[in-house]
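Reopening this one. Same input as before:
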Amino acid sequence: MKRLFAAASLSVLMLAACQQQQAAEPAARSAAETTQASNGVSGMAPAFTLVDAEGVQRSLADYRGKTVILEWSNEGCPYVKKHYTGAMQALQREATGDGIVWLTIISSAPGTQGFVEGETARNWKTRFNASHTHLLLDPTGQVGRLYDAKTTPDMRIIGPDGRILYAGAIDDRPTNKPEDLEGANNYVRAALTDIDAGRAVATPYAVPYGCSVKYADEQQPA
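Same output, byte for byte:
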């Protein structure tokens, strides 16, 4: 009888543990989904229009039906310099070669690190041997704030239907050392591979790293 009672008690405990685990799993998924949603992942990309380095207005709506990459940049930032030793340009060439629209955005305010205008903006692509589609100027920071861009670099991938499929860091090595590019997991490249294969992006969000975006009327940390 004691053995029977003990077995019954064990069964009850195992059932309770199983129920707790089943209850925890949806909660964990819900927390992950909330984190992604709060960072714009799976949401619709906000519409915007900016002037490019050549003085031409470019709207996100112009590229509906195409995959679009947004890249926040600041040429004075050591983290940007790390990626512009060749890795970012190579990724730009791969993406644009596949018909993807790559929009590099500078949200630095006038008088702050990374701000460009005029001839400096026009020759930006040549100076850095970049292969973006357009360099967009956002000196008021309106679009940067619209997308909650926090660092340079900070990346977004927008699907053909206008939905944000990836947001955050360029890779998993949050340093400004070029030697750390070797062996890094480039989240943008990985996301593009997933999209091209027709599957969900495995890592839809990663905490961005780099220099703070130099928005107007804000205290400017490094």
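So the earlier flakiness isn't reproducible anymore. For the record, Residues 55 and 180 are 36 Å apart (CA to CA).
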